[in-house]
Amino acid sequence: MALVTDSTTPTAERTRIVTDDGVELGVTRTAPAGATRASILVASATAVPRGFYRRFAEHAAKAGYEVLTMDYRGTGESRPTSLRGYEMTFADWAEHDIPAGIEALRADRPRYLVGHSYGGSALGLVPGTERLAAAYTFGSGTGWGGWMSPAERRRVRVLWAFAGALTAVMGYAPWSRLGGGEDLPAGAFRQWRRWTGFPRFVVDDPLVPDAAARYASVRIPLTYATAVDDPWATPRARDETLACYTGAASRTAVDLHPSDIGVEQIGHMGYFRAGAEAFWDDVLATFGA
């Protein structure tokens, strides 16, 4: 456990939390130097370590928000010694890890979720979303190739096939060797690949027959922001996901343009890179705690 602090910057505490099924997760709690107005859980994208969201966490903390970033099981500081033979599913992150993160936030002030990709796409599988005041996600969509450009669809088809073959040989998905982020447990990769084979992600998977009802049971206000140049989570993919939350208090879709922040490209990862502070300010203004 390490603290980084001074009189003007937020504090960043690296620690661990435990899920309801007994898995320890590495987390970082970034707190304001002064009074705390509300708390935010960052629900990461697939294969993206929590350190990627450090800039956002510090930015939000300077505005008075406590922010919890986390490594899902099987990744980052929540990874076992070996991924070979490590048993888990893609759904575990939503069904166990994200709820543990929500629970780790103090209940005596508003709790919000900021998602990236998976963190918004699988929000409908998260139990206990009623503990949240609202959610705002970036780049969250179905991942189905039919909503991508023809060129991206062909690229992804080759990527899935190659990664699948490597996973069968190695016993885990060597995602880092493919330039996609961190390595993944085999079970998480295979379910991820399966769900992206459906137009509405897990909601269309016959092996998860209650998924539609679970998504419809989410009652909080939702804002889903997507870059118009995001090759995976296109605005159409975002809209198909957002449409599944039929019981939400409100559903807002936001299209983001590179010109909004003076860059040439946002893509799927630019939402949380340096220079995207204007997007983060929109998040905090939406929460307005």
Q: Can you walk through the features of this model?
A:
The protein is of the alpha/beta class and 289 residues long. It has a single domain (3-287), classed as Alpha/Beta hydrolase fold, catalytic domain (Rossmann fold, 3-Layer(aba) Sandwich). The protein is built from eight helices and eleven strands. The protein has helices spanning 54-62, 91-103, 118-121, 150-170, 186-195, 211-216, 235-242, 277-287, and strands at residues 3-4, 11-18, 24-31, 38-43, 65-70, 111-116, 134-138, 172-173, 184-185, 221-227, 250-256. The strands form two sheets. A nine-stranded mixed beta sheet has the order 1-2-3-5-4-6-7-10-11, with helices on both faces. Strands 8-9 form a two-stranded antiparallel sheet. Helix 4 (150-170) packs antiparallel against helix 5. The protein is globular and about 50 Å long. The two termini are 29 Å apart. Residues 1-7 have low confidence and may be disordered.
Short description:
The chain is an alpha/beta fold and 289 residues long. It is built from eight helices and eleven strands.
Please give the radius of gyration in angstroms: 18 Å
Looking at CATH, the homologous superfamily is Alpha/Beta hydrolase fold, catalytic domain
Separate helix tally: 8
Domains (count): 1
End-to-end CA span: 29 Å
Tell me the name of the CATH class.
Alpha Beta
What shape does the CA trace take? globular
Number of strands: 11
Q: Kindly estimate the percentage of residues that lie in beta strands according to DSSP.
A: 15-25%
The CATH architecture assignment turns out to be: 3-Layer(aba) Sandwich
Global structural class: alpha/beta
Order of helices and strands: EEEEHEHEHEHEEHHEHEH
